[in-house]
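Running this now, will post back.
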Amino acid sequence: MDREQARKEALKQKTKSPMPMQDPEVRVHNFSSVELGYTPEIAWTESSRCTPCKGPRCVPYCPVEIDIRAMMDAVRLENYEEAFQVICRSNLFPAITGRVCPQESQCEMVCVRGVKGEPVGIGFVEKFLADWARERGIRPKADMLPPNGKTIAIIGSGPAGMSAAADLVRLGYGVTIYEALHRPGGVLIYGIPEFRLPKAIVDYEIDNLRALGVEIVLNTLVGRTITMDELIQDFDAIFVGTGAGLPYFMNIPGEQLNGVYSANEFLTRANLMNARSFPEAPTPIHHGKCVGVVGGGNVAMDAARVSKRLGAEQVDIIYRRTRDEKDEMPARRDEIHHAEEEGINFLYLHAPVAIYGDEEGWVKEVEMIRMELGEPDDSGRRRPVVVPDSNFRRPYDVLVMAIGQGPNPLLARLTPYLKTNKWGQLVIDPKKLSLDGKEAAVAAGETPPEIPIICAGGDIIGSQAGAGGTVIAAMGHGKIAARTIHEALQERPPKSGTAPSADA
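Update: finished.
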């Protein structure tokens, strides 16, 4: 079949070209990638499903502003390097976003092919291009403006900070990222499991950032190692992307028992600290045989699937709502499907009310209560209501709380002029993502017009700028903040200070 005929056949195809996967019975015993990736032929077929629609709706729905039509056109011409560079003009991290971006609620949600079938697999094609380029040693080509002598401090090396750094360094700024941990990447490293996002891929794309001239200073906790005032004195602008490192608990009896983890600690041990390889790695993690995971988001799916790979025989996801109604369960449909394939059990309309331990202080049982759905709450979802006298107990030796987390409070607590709302998020201008720098200037001994430019993005601002809580939303925040900083600094001379090091 020639290409023209194959193109016509692809246009008739109503479903996405399937993503090759590891068999569920095999993958539950390893941490290798679940998705094996498109071949060039599959990617070409999927790109050929892309209809040359008038005014593509997908592009405005991409938070990192990828020219999706140009990408698909280049793939259809089998010019994979050009397609890869199209992505990199606006997004330096396609291997990351191609794996973890919820395209189904972004660009693919508005794809015209989804009207009478499934949308084009934009994320699958993006992942293919990133992997194709990496396997051939092809790096992003960056259009760099000449250095302008101005410097930017970025606090946090997660997706928001990485995105802001990528845009700002290409605009000619000297960019220094300060990271509290010993490895850059933020939630991409400590939160997302290896089988969804291999750490070598994160390292590779961070190396692309370093190659552009971004300096990353590790083991540096801003607020302790270096103060915010020092950064204000030495940098022309600051971006705060410290993420959400404060886990939430239910405040029920027994949460202090051994074997009760926050999802944050559980996944950080397994991912960043390699506890899954204990005792080869020094950090331990309790390998339960019967594990309960409380919550219904992507983090809950990750914790449950990691538990299965650590050898758990029974893993239950305990969720107080159902899956059935629209937007009822917040996890991505693909992640729920993968968890089901791997033998994860779902206890819908259940909630823990107490945890019981053995004589040595380890989790033994969890008391639960059944729920039913009542009237909608403020989120528009039907409110879970307790079913009276429905309590029962179920045995567990590990319980993971994956019910959300809030912003890391340390920086705001140590820097009183950073204003926070009742959720602990930095208060920002929702359009520009900037903070009021007047109090910061006074605290740092400066006066107008030396008021610092301070912006923030990612989980530290939550949903103040629209949809939040995802890697791609945080990267979108980074782009907006970079634009705000660039515009604000146009009329200012560069500061003469020297960027403080970790030893300052």
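The mean pLDDT is 91. More later if anyone needs it.
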